[in-house]
Amino acid sequence: MGKTQSKFTEESSIVIKIFKKNNNNKSPFYLTPSSSLRYKKRKSANESFKQISSSITTTSSSSSYSNNKSNSIVSSVNSLLNEDHIFKYMGGRKFLIFEDARYLLPFDDDEHARLQLQHFLYRHMWNGNFSSPVHELLQNSNATVLDIGCSTGAWTLDMATDYPFSKFIGVDIFPIYPLEIRPKNVEFEMANILNGLPFDDGTFDFIFMRSMNLSFTSQEWENVVMKELMRVVKPGGWIEIMERDPWITGVGPATDKCNKTFADELKTRYNVDPFISPHISSYMHSTQKIEKIFHEEKKMIIGEARDNLSKVCLDNYKWFRRNCKGSIGTKIENFDKMLDESFNEFKDKKAYETSHRFFAMKKIEDGNSLN
Ligand SMILES: C[S@@+](CC[C@H](N)C(=O)[O-])C[C@H]1O[C@@H](n2cnc3c(N)ncnc32)[C@H](O)[C@@H]1O
Q1: Is the N end or the C end of the chain the one with fewer CB atoms within 10 Å?
Q2: pTM value?
Q3: Rounded (5°) CA angle 159-161-167
Q4: What whole-number distance in Å separates Cα of residue 307 and Cα of residue 313?
Q5: All domains of the chain in start order, with CATH
Q6: Which range is the signal sequence, renumbered to this chain (predicted)?
Q7: What is the pLDDT of residues 81-132, one digit of tens each?
């Protein structure tokens, strides 16, 4: 081990060792879609990943401030946050290159502030945090709920406050969720869904996943993510996926050009199709674990022509596009100019932004196994 690594505690030295083993000097941004062989490799890598996760998982029982283990976990994670092998700076912004993350947004305070804003925008727009018929269940019983790709934990924490008798677990590929201060009914855990979630079959009553359209290829959505969701939800439990359509149409030619440029870059460089909402139902059905899928969509005016809310929507949209500069934007000529020309078109427009919720119950007669 090198000099820098020797300062790490036992937990974080495991992390670094495993990370180097899996790194292969490849940028995760150029990974190809998972073949079954690759998926098998990931499965074995996942054993190592589980060790990492368990070493920095934080639970309510270990969250006491006077608890030495908790403090050492926090300091080891803080040390990790400075580690070059985990982050890469592109266009002056910090991006995660840990494990096989294909995450095209920065991993810094600015983007996390945007995600917080977006959480409250969505909650307001939808008049609630979810659409599945689980309110009674969460309110009255000891339900277990999973939030995949929980990021800062905004949804998990909000829900845990609303439903104090249920237990909430947020997972993310890297710990940006609160490590110390959180309600008693919340746990956060580090997990990469593409490697398989570290939970037994049929663990959860309700699983929620939102805004993951830049994180998976279409093949991963269908062959890995959906199957993993169906595996860890209980028979009779609910799965809800929420995605926003990434392109705003009807604004003007500069915005159309911007949409197309983003789409082409995402496809050719990352094999990602951010317009995932038209496919979610068929991917869910292909698991054969559900009978009926419910779909709701909301259109929200975005622009400067209407009210404060539509202006905040526009701010969030601009913020999102700008934050893609270090990843998607690096190969696009005159990226800033392209964005400015598009943003100028919103001035007198009432464009719409559409978001979707797909929710379905896992069939009861199927049992827990996907085999
Ligand atoms: C756009 S953010 C959405 C955050 C949150 N779901 C929300 O709606 O506010 C996507 C999150 O997914 C996480 N993520 C990306 N790939 C992942 C993976 N393979 N497994 C688990 N989390 C992942 C990222 O780290 C990031 O925090």
Answers
A1: C
A2: 0.79
A3: 65
A4: 10
A5: 104-362 (3.40.50.150)
A6: none
A7: 555 677 778 777 888 776 666 678 888 889 999 999 999 999 999 999 999 9
